[in-house]
Amino acid sequence: MVVNFIDNEVSSKFLSDKNCAIRTIDMEIETIVKLRDGLDESLSQALDLMQNAKGRIIITGMGKSGHIGKKIAASLASTGSPSFFVHPAEASHGDLGMITENDVVLAISNSGESKELLDILNYCKRFGIPLISITKNPKSSLGRAGDIVLKLPDNGEACPLGLAPTSSTTATLVLGDILTTGLIERRGFTKEDFNARHPGGKLGSILQRVSDLMHVGDEIPLLSENSDMQKVLIEMTSKRLGCVGFVDEKGELTGMLTDGDLRRCLTSKILEEKAVNLMTKNPMTISKDAMVAEVLKIMHDKKITNMFVVENSKPIGVIHIHDLLNSGVA
């Protein structure tokens, strides 16, 4: 009976918690839908200002709006739109000097009446710096000061008290993502551009190209297809990649032998053989521009550990599965 009582208590708590979670989700979805339905030409006007800025996009906001602003600034900066966050309180103590006449300021306040923003608003007006206001109240101090106003839905908060920023900050975050993705499309920002800004971490490794990791020059285990097997064994051992590639008189890749191939065809007379008689002809190859994630999938599916990189049928590099794994792509 005690166990049943505890189980019932846990079940009751979960039901209550789940209902609270569903109300929160539904409220925030409703707010995002209102944001979507309220989009107008001010969005394009804001994107025009941000895209054409000769300087940076400066994000500012106080409290929770500031936290969201930092994320927006980080997203913009990582996708081709130079941007950083300026704390409004710090701005009043010297950081206004970080904002130049070539910049665009994006100021965030749900109510539009954050007193800490006043110095930044006055500074923008004094020096003619374009100001984009994000607020639910276009008639607020922030709304009136903005050259362009991006209106947040006035839909209350998901907080049961109606006080803690919840739905409003979610809407602000989504609006920031809208601006970020809009600029990505306008600028024609590519995966290569993204990789250049994310050289570290999982994203950086996934977006690497074969050319970033392949072995080149003297590191490539490469011989003529007419080489004898003694020479093949020496080449494979010295290059330590577990394979040798073979070329014809035109320098084009015609075959490949791996250490696994050697074990399978090992006989007492193997040294009397020529490479052309034992090699795997027309082996699978890859382009230097292929993504490393693509190569890893091929190696996994085909159960191979090496691939030669070719250009116009001629080998320019070789890549081993360990190169991929060590780069962090897996």
Written overview of the protein:
The chain folds into two domains: 2-189, Glucose-6-phosphate isomerase like protein, domain 1 (Rossmann fold), CATH 3.40.50.10490; 210-326, CBS-domain, CATH 3.10.580.10. Helix 2 packs across helix 7 (167-187) and helix 3 packs parallel to helix 7 (167-187). By secondary structure, it is an alpha/beta fold. It has a five-stranded parallel sheet, with helices on both faces. The mean pLDDT is 89. It is 48% helix and 16% strand. The relative contact order is 0.10.
SSE map:
Layout: H1 2-37, H2 42-52, E1 57-61, H3 64-78, E2 83-85, H4 88-91, E3 104-108, H5 118-127, E4 131-135, H6 141-145, E5 148-151, H7 167-187, H8 191-197, H9 201-206, H10 210-213, E6 222-224, H11 229-239, E7 243-247, E8 253-258, H12 259-264, H13 275-278, E9 280-281, E10 285-286, H14 292-302, E11 306-311, E12 314-320, H15 321-326
Parallel strand pairs: 1-2, 1-3, 3-4, 4-5, 6-7, 10-11
Antiparallel strand pairs: 7-8, 8-9, 11-12
Helix pairs in contact: 1-7, 2-7, 3-7
Question: Keywords, please?
Answer:
330 residues, alpha/beta, Rossmann fold, 2 domains, 12 strands, elongated
In brief:
This protein is of the alpha/beta class and 330 residues long. 48% of the residues lie in helices and 16% in strands.
